DNA sequence: AATGAATGAGGTTTCATTCAT
DNA sequence: GATGAATGAAACCTCATTCAT
C-alpha cells in the first residue's frame, strides 16, 4: 500500500469549484465517521456500512475516495497522528520556567488523551497489529522524528539552570510522561472495574494529574 | 451472559475417568488456542475456525464447551486475569526491605507484561469495548479487590521505617507502577516507529526497568 | 422406512424385569416429549436436543430407541392417531336417539381437537409434507378404515326412523363435522387476529359448538 | 420487527428507471420463490439457499431486500393475505339474488383454497406459531377488519327478503363457509389416506362443493 | 460526483447423528 | 441401559467489494 502526502490531496485546491468543494466535504465526513467507528470498534470490528451511514454517504464513496478499508484506516491513522502532532507543536512553553513548562506538557498530554479517546483507541489497534500501518506510512515517519520536540529545549534549560539532573534524557522523560498519562486513559474501563474508582470522574482525573506531575518532577529535579 | 466459577468446572473432578480427562484436555487446548488467537487478532478479528484448528479440534467443540464466541472470550479473559493474579500472589516479598521489595514488584510487573503479550492485548481489547465482559463476570469481580495486595504491607512497613513518605497511597503507587510498565509493552510497536528505538531489544528493556525503578523510588522516599 | 406394530414393542413384555420397565419408561418419556415438541415447532422446527432435554434423557437415547428423527416423528404420529381412534371408539352412543347421538359426536370431536392441540398440529405438519409419513405406515392404514365408524349405525338408524334424509352419506357427514370442528381449532390463532374474537374463550367455543350442531342437524334432517 | 406498508415500497415509483425496475423484478422473484418454498416446506424447513436459487438470485439479495428469513416470511405472509383479500373484494355479487350470491361466495372460497395451496400452507404455519407474525403486522391488521365484507350485504338482503333466517350472523356464516372449504384443502393428504378417496380428483371436489353449498344454504334459509 | 444493485467469500452457529466407554 | 464427547454438513447471515448507471 502506498500513501500520498496528506495535504496534497487531489480533491483540495485553493481555487476549487463547487463540485470539488462538495467532494472535499464528503471525503471529510467519511474520514470523521471512520475515525469514530474505528475508535469504537477497532479495525476488524469497524464496519464500512456503519461508516458510510454515519457520514450520511454510501459505501461506494468510501471506495471512490479511499480505495479500500485498510487504506481508509491508514488515512484515519495519519490524520489522527497529525492532529496530535499539531496540537503538541502549538503548545506555547516558556523555557525560562522549566518546571512550570514541564507541568504544562504533562497536563496537555493527559488532557489530550482524555479528550481524544479515538487517538488512544487507534494507537491500541495499531499495536495489536504490530504497527503494521504506521510503519508503512511515509507521512507518519515524517512526524515521528519530532515527537519529543517540546521536551528537548525545556530539559536543556532546566539542566543549565541546575534545576534538573544531568542524567535525565528527553527520551526517558517523554516515555515517563506518556506512560503516566496514557495508561490512565487507555485502561480506564478495566481499571474502573479493578481499582474500584471511577476513572471517568473529573475529580479523580485532577487528583491523578497532580500525582503524576509530582512523580515526574521528583524524577528530574536535582537531589537536595 | 452468566459465568460460572472457573475452578468449579463440570469437566474437572479429582477422580475423573479417562473420558473426563480427555474432555478437560480438549477444553484446555481450545482455551489456549483462543487466548493466542484473540491476543493476536482481537475479539472481532479472531476467527473461530483458526482457534479450532490451532487446538487440533473442530469448530463444533467450541460451541459444545463454551456456547459461543463471546462466552469463549469471556473465559479467556477470566483465565488470563486469574493467571496474572496467581503469579502476583506468588511473589515472595521481604517486607523488612521495602525498597528492595518495591524493586521486585516493579521488575515482576514489567517482566510479566513482556512475557505475556496476550494479557496486554486482551486488556486492550477489553478497554476498546469499555470492559463489557469484565464488568459482567463474577469471577473477575472476586479477583479485583486484591489487586494492590502486594503493595499494602510493603508500603506500610516503609512508612513505619521512615523510608517512604506518609502521603504515598497504595492506589497511586499501584497505578504508577502499572503505567510505567504497561505502556512500554502495550505500545511497543508504535513506540518503535516513533521513538526510533527497538523496544523488543532486551538491553533497552533493562535500561527502561532501571529508569522506572528510579522514578518510582524517587516518588516514594522521604525528602532529604 | 418400515414401521412395526405399535403394541408389539420389543421393550414391552408382560413379565418384564426392572431394566425393561425402566427402558419402557424412558421410551415413553421421549415419546411424550417428542409429541409436545413436534406439536409446538413442527417436524423441521422440532429439535432433538430439546426433546431429549424435556424427556430428562439425552440425545443418544432417541437414536437408541427410535433410530432417527423421522422414525421418531412417525412414532409420534402413529401414537397420536391411535389415541384419537381409541377415544372415538370409546364413545358410548345410543343409536335409538340419532339426533342426540349426532350431537354427542360433534361435541366429542370438537372437544377432542380443543383438548389435543398436538393432534391438530401434527396433522397439519403431515399435510404440509403431503402425508408422507402417514402413507408409509401400516399401523395408520389399519386405523383408517374405521374412521367413520361411529357415524354409520347412527346414520342408518336415523334414516330408518325417517329422521334423516336418505341422500346423506356417512362420508359427507363425517367430513362436514370434521371441517366445522377442526378449522376452528387449527386456525384459532389467525382467526383471532382476523375475526377479532378470542377463539380461546370458552364461552365463544360453546357458542360455536351450538352453532355447528345446528348446521349439521339442519343438513341431515328430512325437509319439513 | 416493523413492517412497512406493502404498496409504499422503496423500489416502486411510477417513474422508475431501468435500475429500479430491475430491482423490483428481483425483489418480486425472491418473494415468489419464497412463497413457494415456505408453502412447501414451512418456515423452519424452508431454505434460504433454495429460495435464492429458485429466484435465480443469490442468498445475499434476500438479506439486502428483506433483512432476514423471518422478515421475508412476514412479507410472504402479508402478500399472500393481500392477494386473497383482493380476490375476495373483486367478487362481483348480485345482492338481488342472495342464494345465488352465497353459492358464488362458497365456490369462490373453495376454488381459491384449491388453487392457492401456498395460502393454506402459510396459514397453517402461522397457526403453528400462534399467529406470531400476523399479530405483529400492521398491514395485516388493516386487512382483517374487512374479512367478512362480501357476506354482510348479501345476508342483509336475504334477511330483508325473508329468504334467510334472522338469527344468522355474518360471522358464523363466514366461519361456516371457511371451515367447509378450508378443511378439505388443508387436510387433503391425510384425508386421502384416511377416507380412502382422492381429494385431488376434480370430480370429487365438485361433489364436495355441491354438498357444502347444500349444507350452508340449509343452515341459513328460513324454516319451511 | 454519486448511488442503488449485486456478489462471493467467509463468518458464526446449529443440527442430526455417531463414537466410545 | 445409559451417556458425555465428538463430528461434518449445512444453515443463516455478514462483510468488503464491484457493477452499472
Automatic annotation (TrEMBL), chains A, B, C, D:
Residues 7-19 have a biased composition (Basic and acidic residues). InterPro entries: Homeodomain-like_sf, HTH-type_TetR-like_transc_reg, HTH_TetR, NicS_C, Tet_transcr_reg_TetR-rel_C_sf. Gene3D superfamilies: Homeodomain-like, Tetracycline Repressor, domain 2. Pfam families: TetR_C_29, TetR_N. The keyword Calcium does not apply. GO terms for molecular function: DNA binding. Residues 47-66 bind DNA. This is TetR family transcriptional regulator. It comes from Marinomonas ushuaiensis DSM 15871.
